[in-house]
Structures are given as structure tokens and as C-alpha cells.
Amino acid sequence: MAMDNRSGSIFGLVNPSYGASDPGMNVPLTSNPGLSQLSPYLNFDPAYLQTTQPEFIALEGASQKRGRFELAFSQIGGSCLIGAGLGGAQGLYGGLQETAAAGHTGKIRRTQLINYLMKRGSASANTLGVVAFMYSGLGCLLYYARGSHEDDLNTAGAATMTGLLYKSTAGLKKCAVGGLIGLGLSAAYIAFSSRDKLKDQYAHRF
Question: Which of 172, 173, 153, 160 shows the shortest CA–CA distance to 134?
């Protein structure tokens, strides 16, 4: 039976061997001396790719960074999902305790667990969704009221007004507590997101 001299196997189909003399393996790694490296698989120069450009399409004359209005949708949706997850876990835990204490078994217990899970999950999702909607709306109002200027003051102001508005129907004292909670949460978020700047400032001072 004839053997292929290059591969040492039947017709070169089994266990092929390639060497440096194979012209198919002579793929250049650089386009020209001093230029960037070529891809050995696609045989193109990555220098032609504009990697510094943003990965999304913005309107002509618009900012390349997403503003509060664009972020509002993800914030509201994410808050609803987080609320549903936390509330569902709380409802499931409470349902397990309540049904065990009541002695429910089988289908009755399963139905009660589903009721607990859905009730707590939907309530928590609605609560966090409303809070996120109020925060996003107030943040957008502050953003446009200050001449499309975005900084940490918008975050702190929107969070404080959200706490005040959310507890506005519960009395003056609870309204003030809600505002303080919103201000505290926003201050913690600002400190966490600006930790690198704070470290640089303290490093220059001391």
C-alpha cells in the first residue's frame, strides 16, 4: 500500500507531521519591521483596529458616557430583581417555620410556601422598585436643573429627597429619619466610589 512520505501514514490522513519546510506554516508575525504584531490565525494587522473608540454608538454631539436617564432603567430593574430575591428568600424562610409549626404537610405545605414566597417577594420588589424610581427621577431633575452638570451632589441630593418623599406620609419625624437614611447611604456610596481619589488626596497631604 502506498504511503505518503510527508506524514509517514496512509495518504497523510492519520497522524500528519508538519515541519518548518511546510509553506503553510510560514505565517509572518509582523507586517513589517517595527510595526505591530500580526495575528497568526487571521493574518491581519491589529493596528488597523481602533481599540480606543467606545463600544457603543452615541448620537452626534451627545456625551460618550451614559447619563442618569440611561442608567435609570437598569437601576430600577435591578432593584426590582434584588427586592424579589431578598423578599422571596425571607418569605421562604418564614413559610418553612410557619408551616412546620402548623403541622402542614404535602400539597398544603407546598401551596403555603409558594404563597409566602410570592407575597414577600412581590412586596419587596415593589418597595425597592418604587424607591429606585423615585431616586432616578429626582436625580434626573437635579441633573437638568443644574444645567446638565453631574457630580456627587446630585447623588446625595437625590437620595436625601427620596428618603424624605418616601416617608413623607408617615409623619414629620419618620420623614426626617428617611432623609437621614438616604443621606447616609449616599454618603457611603460616594465614599466607596471615590476611594481612590480620597487616597490620593490624603497621600499628597501627608
Answer: 160
C-alpha to C-alpha distances, 84 to 67, 80, 116, 134, nearest whole angstrom? 26, 6, 12, 18
Q: Most distant CA pair in the chain: distance in Å? A: 98
Residue 30, φ and ψ in degrees, nearest 5: -135, 145
Q: What digits encode the pLDDT tens for the residues 58-92?
A: 556 555 566 788 888 999 999 999 999 999 999 99
Helix (H) or strand (E) holding 191: helix 172-193
Contact 80, 128 (CB under 8 A): yes
pLDDT in tens, 184-206: 999 999 988 887 776 776 666 65
Write the CA distances from 92 to 19, 81, 103, 117, 134, integer angstroms: 64, 16, 16, 5, 29
Q: Taking Cα atoms as reference points, which of 191, 61, 66 lies closest to residue 139?
A: 66
Reading the block at residue 85, the C-alpha cell is 430575591
CA 64, CA 55: separation in Å to the nearest integer? Answer: 10
